[in-house]
């Protein structure tokens, strides 16, 4: 057996304290050199060009003449790439995004000659418990990572990593991907001996794997000569071959199930989830929008006969995946880099929202009920009763809403004249290649905001008509009451701004809590004598009450310090102004809390705290395709500093959409914003709204001693100053049933969407499109019962549809039902066959290929 394997490589951050353009320009130089050297020399038998194809995609955009040469090197194994498109984070990126990242990366790598069968993430900030599931589903042999491991989790550095579903992968924990980054040109063997000693102490077994290379480093052309002086049996090899040899001689591997989120041996940056909350919120909303609205909507339209815009959707995903890379989604970057990241979000939002508009416009135009009819879309595969907010144009000031001839209950929120669209569309009658529907008969038009309550058919749309009425629907909703209530909650606001929950609820109160943050863009860090501010002055309180909902809104002014220095001196020299709106809907057992704060101070953190009557020692949160239970007692790690940990163990945790207390009858909170929470005092859930810190990297923090993370300390220009942060929380009493929690989260975060098409929008402002379609007024593509929906999309390599479902339970299997006739069961790679049954293991997935008929 070989003693040592040397992996010649570069780890190429696409952006960080530098922009992606700077990275790309310098990559052209380095990659030219790598390709030239490997094409003309055999002393370096193989070179790992990181594990992501996006850097090759950038390279070939400007070096297309080198494509054949590069393909030859990859085909021969002299250059190794993939399987990722980008080096993704794994803790706060959705399961669908991780699958698309691998799908795109593996497809690109295959087209170039092949990919390594390794879940290669050497620098990502922690590992999700569900990575073995994803790697198994995508046909990868190994998991390979550096950060997050701790001795109390598992002492071995090579082990069987098993997901809750039982799917396993052989895992290798890396000491450092730059352990051999700077070997001396002349070495008597002592340098390599020192490195091997480090790996022995770390717990690695033979063959010892030494990485030559590091961040943005060129190929070390004399590495073969350097290692000749070692007394060890040493060779340059590929990582996959090296792991094959490691595990071929490992018959005593330990088993481990769980995530890796501890900073014992390397920094994990466990509070990076709330850095630049304004950008994180954009990411999280767009990620859901793409996979839970745009793709299902596109699937619906495809089944109706429209084109599935696969290329546009893939472009959106690729932009999102660029922003999912560990530094990019961390937002631990220069302001200039973060501006580029924000531009990608804006482009995704622009493409995807216009794609949705074009689809719903054509469907609406093809439903010929009446000129002002509109549709409501449900992109979840089950029927549900919903309150739907609709923005409509109507020729009637007084009107009623009908569906299938039946009156539909609604509230008219406001109405006003809007002549612009009418005047422009009348002028352009006939441009849409159809005879006018009678639009020119109307002399007035109104824009109305309404709230409908109705049952919506699964995975489809239904159509509503606007009919003239003699009854004025507009009501005065203002109330002099100081409270709001429904069948489940009664709520009032104290003079200090805290929200009090009365009645039969496990929720005591909800309040905002502002405190110090001495950290940087990587980490929150606590101070020795903090000042917590959870009270303020209430102004402009308003109460509205209708038959469908009740709402209380107010402005909260909190006196806070401008910075850390003033906080330590207890100088409250600034006003932090928040706008809060609480809504209760009739027959809905949840509290909707909308939070808006315009930040104007630094070195602080703001959170919404849900204070409950429950005492627990563990929390519940969702993760990719499942649920995770975490301990809340971190006092056992109080000696972390003496034990030499790189980072303080803390209960600041990631989530995908919700967190709850682990109790039989519990309280759950769903957030459409930052994916970060913490359990306080065993009975409170604190949801982070934002952090505001003026440094990219900062040395010697209380919670992270030593050097500054990142290259050096950089003033960030107070990026969050004068930035409004808006988040909506959905808080409820609920049974400790993981299915119900996931179902609740899916429904409140994926509300039914209304859309009005018609000739009224046929004008230059909205584009004029020909009316070439004829669709039924109501349409449902499919229905599922008994599983949680993840995605519905067109297959990567053909035109069949792919439906993905999952089981949120950790301890029991589920069986689901569906009304789909022709189907195949495949794995997430969409080609490998899976068991042909409606059975899903705990925290497992089922991918169904719906055959075209």
Short account of what is shown:
The chain is an alpha+beta fold. The protein has 15 helices and 45 strands. The chain folds into 5 domains: 4-266, Glycoside hydrolase 38, N terminal domain (7-stranded beta/alpha barrel, Alpha-Beta Barrel), CATH 3.20.110.10; 274-343, Up-down Bundle (Substrate Binding Domain Of Dnak, Chain:A, Domain 2), CATH 1.20.1270; 374-475 and 752-761, Immunoglobulin-like (Sandwich), CATH 2.60.40; 479-749, Beta-galactosidase, Chain A, domain 5, CATH 2.70.98.30; 786-850, Immunoglobulin-like, CATH 2.60.40.2220.
How much is the radius of gyration in Å?
28 Å
CATH architecture of the largest domain: Distorted Sandwich
Count of extended strands: 45
Integer tally of domains:
5
CATH superfamily label of the largest domain: Golgi alpha-mannosidase II, domain 4
Q: What is the CATH topology descriptor of the largest domain?
A: Beta-galactosidase, Chain A, domain 5
Based on CA inertia axes, which overall geometry fits? globular
Measure the end-to-end span.
55 Å
**What percentage of residues falls in helices of 4 or more residues?**
10-25%
Strand order of the largest sheet: 18-23-24-25-26-35-32-31-28-29
Name the average pLDDT. Answer: 94
Number of helices: 15
Kindly name the structural category.
alpha+beta
Question: Quick one: CATH class of the largest domain?
Answer: Mainly Beta
Residue fraction in strands: 25-35%
Major sheet characteristics: 10 strands, antiparallel
> Low-confidence segments, ≥5 residues, pLDDT <50?
none
Keywords: Glycosidase, Hydrolase, Metal-binding
GO molecular function: alpha-mannosidase activity; carbohydrate binding; mannosylglycerate hydrolase activity; metal ion binding
Domain Glycoside hydrolase family 38 central: 267-345
Pfam family, one: Alpha-mann_mid
């Amino acid at each position: 057996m070989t003693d040592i394997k040397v992996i010649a490589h570069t780890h190429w951050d696409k952006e960080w304290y530098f922009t992606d353009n700077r990275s790309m320009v310098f990559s052209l130089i380095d990659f030219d050199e790598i390709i030239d050297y490997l094409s003309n020399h055999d002393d370096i038998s193989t070179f790992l060009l990181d594990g992501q194809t996006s850097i090759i995609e950038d390279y070939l955009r400007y070096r297309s003449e080198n494509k054949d040469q590069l393909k030859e090197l990859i085909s021969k194994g002299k250059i190794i790439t993939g399987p990722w498109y980008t080096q993704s984070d794994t803790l706060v990126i959705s399961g669908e995004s991780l699958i698309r990242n691998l799908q795109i990366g593996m497809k690109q790598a295959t087209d170039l000659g092949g990919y390594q069968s390794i879940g290669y993430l050497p620098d990502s900030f922690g590992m999700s418990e569900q990575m073995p599931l994803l790697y198994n589903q995508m046909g990868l042999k190994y998991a390979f990572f550096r950060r997050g491991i701790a001795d109390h989790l598992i002492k071995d550095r090579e082990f069987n990593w098993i997901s809750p579903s039982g799917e396993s992968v052989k895992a290798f924990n890396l000491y450092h991907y730059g352990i051999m980054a700077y070997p001396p040109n002349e070495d008597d063997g002592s340098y390599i001996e020192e490195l091997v000693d480090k790996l022995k102490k770390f717990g690695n077994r033979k063959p010892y794997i030494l990485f030559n290379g590091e961040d943005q480093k060129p190929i070390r052309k004399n590495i073969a000569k350097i290692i000749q002086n070692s007394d060890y049996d040493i060779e340059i090899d590929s990582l996959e071959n090296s792991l094959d040899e490691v595990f071929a001689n490992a018959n005593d591997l330990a088993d481990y199930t769980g995530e890796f989120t501890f900073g014992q041996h390397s920094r994990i940056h466990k509070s990076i989830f709330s850095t630049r909350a304004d950008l994180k919120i954009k990411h999280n909303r767009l990620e859901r929008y793409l996979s839970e609205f745009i793709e299902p909507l596109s699937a619906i339209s495809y089944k109706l006969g429209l084109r599935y815009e696969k290329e546009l959707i893939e472009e959106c995903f690729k932009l999102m995946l660029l922003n999912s890379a560990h530094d990019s989604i961390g937002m631990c970057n220069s302001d200039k880099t973060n501006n580029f990241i924000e531009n990608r979000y804006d482009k995704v939002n622009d493409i995807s929202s216009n794609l949705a508009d074009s689809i719903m416009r054509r469907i609406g135009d093809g439903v010929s009920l009446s000129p002002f009819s509109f549709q409501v879309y449900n992109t979840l595969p089950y029927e549900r009763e919903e309150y739907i907010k609709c923005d409509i144009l109507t020729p009637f000031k007084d009107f009623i809403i009908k569906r299938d001839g039946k009156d539909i209950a609604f509230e008219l929120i406001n109405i006003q004249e809007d002549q612009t669209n009418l005047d422009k569309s009348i002028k352009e009658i006939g441009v849409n290649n159809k005879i006018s529907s009678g639009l020119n008969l109307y002399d007035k038009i109104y824009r109305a905001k309404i709230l409908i309550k109705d049952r919506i058919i699964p995975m489809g749309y239904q159509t509503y008509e606007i009919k003239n009425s003699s009854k004025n629907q507009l009501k005065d909703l203002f109330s002099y009451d100081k409270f709001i209530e429904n069948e489940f909650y009664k709520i009032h606001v104290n003079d200090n701004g805290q929200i009090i929950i009365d009645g039969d609820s496990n929720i005591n109160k909800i309040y905002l809590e502002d405190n110090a943050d001495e950290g940087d863009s990587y980490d929150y860090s606590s101070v020795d004598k903090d000042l917590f501010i959870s009270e303020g002055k209430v102004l402009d309180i308003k109460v509205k009450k209708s038959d469908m909902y009740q709402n209380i809104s107010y402005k909260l002014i909190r006196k806070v310090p401008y910075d850390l220095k003033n906080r330590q001196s207890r100088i409250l020299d600034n006003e932090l102004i928040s706008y809060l709106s609480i809504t209760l809907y009739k027959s809905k057992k949840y509290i909707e809390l909308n939070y808006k704060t315009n930040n104007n101070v630094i070195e602080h953190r703001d959170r919404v705290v849900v204070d409950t009557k429950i005492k627990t020692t563990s929390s519940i949160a969702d993760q990719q395709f499942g649920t995770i239970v975490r301990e809340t007692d971190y006092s056992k790690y109080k000696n972390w500093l003496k034990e030499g940990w790189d980072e303080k163990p803390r209960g600041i945790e990631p989530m995908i959409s919700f967190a709850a207390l682990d109790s039989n009858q519990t309280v759950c909170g769903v957030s459409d914003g930052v994916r970060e929470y913490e359990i306080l005092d065993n009975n409170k859930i604190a949801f982070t709204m934002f952090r505001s810190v003026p440094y990219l990297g900062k040395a010697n923090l209380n919670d992270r001693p030593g050097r500054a993370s990142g290259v050096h300390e950089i003033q960030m220009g107070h990026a969050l100053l004068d930035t409004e942060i808006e988040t909506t929380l959905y808080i409820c009493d609920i049974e400790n049933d993981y299915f119900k929690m996931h179902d609740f989260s899916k429904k409140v975060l994926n509300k039914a969407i209304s859309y009005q098409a018609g000739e009224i929008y046929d004008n230059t402002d909205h584009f004029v499109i020909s009316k070439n379609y004829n669709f039924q007024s109501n349409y449902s593509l499919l229905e599922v019962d008994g599983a949680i929906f993840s995605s519905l999309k067109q297959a990567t390599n053909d035109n069949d549809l792919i439906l993905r479902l999952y089981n949120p339970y950790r301890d029991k299997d589920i069986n689901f039902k569906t009304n789909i006739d022709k189907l195949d069961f495949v794995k997430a790679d969409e080609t490998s066959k899976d068991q042909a049954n409606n059975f899903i293991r705990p925290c497992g997935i089922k991918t169904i290929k719906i055959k075209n008929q």
